[in-house]
Amino acid sequence: MYSFTEENYLKTIFYLSIGTQEGVSTNALADSTNTRAASVSDMLKRLAEKGLINYQKYRGVTLTEEGERLALLVIRKHRLWEVFLAEKLQFGWDEVHVIAEELEHIRSERLIEKLDAFLGYPKFDPHGDPIPNAAGEMPRFIYRKLSEIVEGTTVIMTGVSEHSPAFLQHLDKAGLTLGCQLKVNEISDFDKSVSVLIDNVRTLFVSHEVAKNLLVK
Amino acid sequence: MYSFTEENYLKTIFYLSIGTQEGVSTNALADSTNTRAASVSDMLKRLAEKGLINYQKYRGVTLTEEGERLALLVIRKHRLWEVFLAEKLQFGWDEVHVIAEELEHIRSERLIEKLDAFLGYPKFDPHGDPIPNAAGEMPRFIYRKLSEIVEGTTVIMTGVSEHSPAFLQHLDKAGLTLGCQLKVNEISDFDKSVSVLIDNVRTLFVSHEVAKNLLVK
DNA sequence: TAATTTTTTTAGATTAGTCTAAATTTTTTA
DNA sequence: TAAAAAATTTAGACTAATCTAAAAAAATTA
Ligand SMILES: [Mn+2]
Ligand SMILES: [Mn+2]
Ligand SMILES: [Mn+2]
Ligand SMILES: [Mn+2]
To answer: Contact at 8 Å (CB) between A132 and A73?
Structure first.
């Protein structure tokens, strides 16, 4: 049985490892976990001891197979709880993350399997992120950013790469929700903002900053 | 914000205080929390410091108004989660307690209010125990034990005073569920076991040990 | 490549919550 | 009511997780 803290480190290492072969640095971990590098060094020793990470001093860390499996099980729980909060309790997608941050550490396999069934075996969380299965396996979808779509193309909004409440609330106000159809009319030469036609009914100007964080297919 | 441990102590003091004016003893707390008396003494000092208990060395403890309010809020969360687990996730009443023991510490007022609404504002948990309101107030019902009911009387099963999985599973096997009608036919002179007519359809012999732990009205 | 800067680790403390063993207080018993 | 027993508290230690400051290693720069 691992502590909340250990589970959070594993999850953080997992996220920081995405899209890179190199090990995750001590400083990056300290940033993400809101601790100091010294504390991270300490914890890395313990996680290595337990066989959850590959760690050589000064070289950064990667997850072992077991470490990755555990990280994905925590992510599974996090995302399933987010679905529960959004779909059953009517929380906004900007509110679910902080609560799931606590719920993800509840230790009961039966609970999570029953929750999964209760929710109808969802494949994605409220932000469009895929939900790992009970074995700790997760499909990897590769989506493009709206900012990379060429003029004239029509796409579907499938996710976000920024999860802050502020960003998500901004999307709410703009009426941008998962699954909506976006036709890229024009990309401004001046500020790279994107003019999109939403669900064939209305036109919206999306800043480059926002477009960069919208995932589409 | 109080720690899981502090919340558990408050809850335990609350339960051990039921039906007595005297303070709860250090040893009783050590028993209930699976710790040693020395650890309890330490914790009592800290809880007194924070104004949650009335404590004088060697004299036992009682909850302050604030301590009791907090204890009841934890109990509220515990019981609401138990209802969720039993009604929505189909857990047996013998399984919900251990899981609720973890869920009761999730800190989000909005979460618990929304959960309450989702569950339809239940008044009782799966064991027949009343659910405190958001202000930390709980109605106190006084039920009798089946073992105290005189022959010929008909009652309704409203709760249990023993919550162990073994006992609850025993009731399941016997077909004794909350709300069933029990007519006391005869109480044995030999072993005080009770012969009851259940829902007017079948007769069952209930040991004194079981009858003592069945609450009826 | 040698000096400087940055990153990381080690050393030494701190806090919450726990423990055992010893001391103290209260309660019970004779 | 004094001795014995039981209950409780104190003393001193331990672990997990954290910190700051200092030392060491790696990376960058001149
Ligand atoms: Mn999240
Ligand atoms: Mn977490
Ligand atoms: Mn319970
Ligand atoms: Mn608890």
So the answer is: yes
